Amino acid sequence: MPGKGPDPLIGRVVNDRFRIVSMIARGGMGKVYRAEQAPLGREIALKVLNPNYSGDSDPEFHKRFFLEASTCSKLTHPNTVTIFDYGRSDDDIYYIAMELLEGRTLHRALRDEGPMEPARAMHVARQICRSLREAHALGVIHRDLKPANVYLMKHGDESDFVKVLDFGLVKDLDATGEDLTQTGLFMGSPKYMSPEQIRGEKVDARADVYALGVILYEMLTGGVPFDRPNSVNILMAHVHEAPPPMNSIPPALEQVVLKALAKAPEDRFDSMDAMLAALKGLASDAGLSVTHSTEIGVSGEIGPLGITGRYDAAAGEGAPTIQGAVPSGAAQLGAEPGMQASGAYPHAQPVEPPNRTPWVFAGLGVLALLGAGVVAWMTRPPEPVAPTPPPTRSIPATQTDTQGTSATAPPTVTTTLVVLRSEPPGATVTVDDREYGPTPADVEWTGADAERGRQITFLFSLEGHRDYSVTRVITGDRLEVDAELEAMRTRVIRPNRRRIRRGNRRADGDETGGPVKGYKLDPY
Q: Which is the catalytic residue, given 85, 144, 267, 449?
């Protein structure tokens, strides 16, 4: 419930950089404000943590906050919200400065519009996969993935560009269930928690796979698989009950969702890469693809704020393959070439967990998968020739649609790999308002950031060393920046040994001239 009187933070400048303009939202952990960053004049979102979460109530909070904020600030994928800065003010206000997003949450979109068409749901899910893939590679597990933490934005002609929020900030990634209970941080939202997370076991990337399975289920059906009157019953259903059938959903897509929702982590996709490959395989094999693409790197402006947003040209987006163990019934993946993005589909029964049969049966399953695809291909009715989809990296200047008209394709994405090194290592590198590192670090820039001839100033900072600034010009697809940091000299002030005057107290003794007990003439 809002407090009485005006918000004392409105109009205040935090750490001489962020002037708070208005409140955007509030939650259990604190408030999110619209703020202006000086001297850039850029509008940002400033998350200010509740004063209850401070070093006074939790001695480990300070250490945990800065460790996790530092880790999350290294997430640079275009589908992940960008963190510009974080810190603590002189009066113990913990804050996180991040990009200001214009759009709506996936939760709001589902509430306003209901279930999504399969093609659109898969389009959103693939972007979430890419965001989490980078986070998992850095050891960051979200653990609270839900529609409220997925933002849908308009970027150019793309209205469903995804930004994933709240990557583990102020959450102890290595805490045990007991630790979480002690600090009052029972992580996750009941409707999206994995069974192992509910049991208090240590979680890994597969917990996020499960949560994405719940989100995909909700996007396709309009509701979560387990919705009960209270949280305890919801949690128990995640552990013990099978997901309800998904009516009017392509059977092959349902198999992907059910695999992500497997009770045992080892029965799910073992990584976001594997789940992404399965989703791309469906879109490629069954024609479940959106008419607009965000798979091609571009640069542009996000809303009216002047914040440059970048798409990455999706790495490794060639011919998709399904990775990991495929549940029974997944042979339908290649058996329905006529599947469309809407309409009624025969229902597929929920998949039972694998029974660990010998490898020979796995081989038979692969043969069945291939055979089903071949039979379906041979028996399908003649279809008009469809245009070949453009490749991800190399795109021809023009392409011709089925009507014979010529359209100009987007230009090939410009990329540059920036290699940052310092001696000694461990430095933070600042470019404009963005921080990279610690060194050594490799950063891939795309679009306008990688424009040939662009001049960039790199500032290397390392505690105990003088800052080092160097300017470089991008001339190709690789830019190496090296810095040799100079250690600061420490001035040693030794005690004054001169006697002041006879009869008075000496600098190194008492009035009688004897040394003070425990005093050392040279403590060094």
A: 144
